[in-house]
Design brief:
Distance between the termini: 15 Å
Strand order of the largest sheet: 1-2-3-4
Largest sheet: 4 strands, antiparallel
Shape: globular
Number of helices: 1
Protein name: Protein kinase domain-containing protein
Helix content: 10-25%
Bound molecules: adenosine-5'-triphosphate
Number of strands: 4
Structural class: mainly beta
Order of helices and strands: EEEEH
InterPro entries: Kinase-like_dom_sf, Protein_kinase_ATP_BS
Keywords: ATP-binding, Nucleotide-binding
């Protein structure tokens, strides 16, 4: 996977979001996890989040993980889980 420090994409609400890698947090079986600064290009809001990314060819595994995590959205142990394309 090509390593880039800044990525733009659409969040699940169709909002354009730019994320900049701050530091590497680790990697697992399906992708890499970075502490990233997310910027909403419309509102100008920023937040820090752990962002997992992977090569497109491996994205089915991350989508499966997202599907499982969404079943626990009401859990107080999951802060928020969202997707960006
Ligand atoms: N929210 C988070 N905050 C801080 N570090 C995180 C966070 N999520 C993941 N990490 C770090 O990134 C690493 C990789 O996470 P990831 O979820 O991809 O894999 P894993 O669950 O550890 O392993 P596997 O996918 O192989 O079962 C973790 O081991 C952890 O060190």
């Amino acid at each position: 996977m090509t390593d880039v420090s800044m990525v733009s994409g659409l969040d699940s609400d169709g909002i354009v979001v730019e994320w900049t890698k701050v530091k590497n947090l680790g990697s697992g079986s399906y992708g890499q996890v970075h502490l990233a600064k997310l910027s909403n290009l419309i509102s100008g809001d920023h937040l820090l989040a752990a962002v997992k990314s992977c090569a497109y060819s491996r994205s089915a595994s991350i989508q499966k993980e997202l599907h499982i995590l969404r079943q626990f959205e009401d859990s107080n142990r999951i802060v928020e889980c969202s997707v960006m394309w």
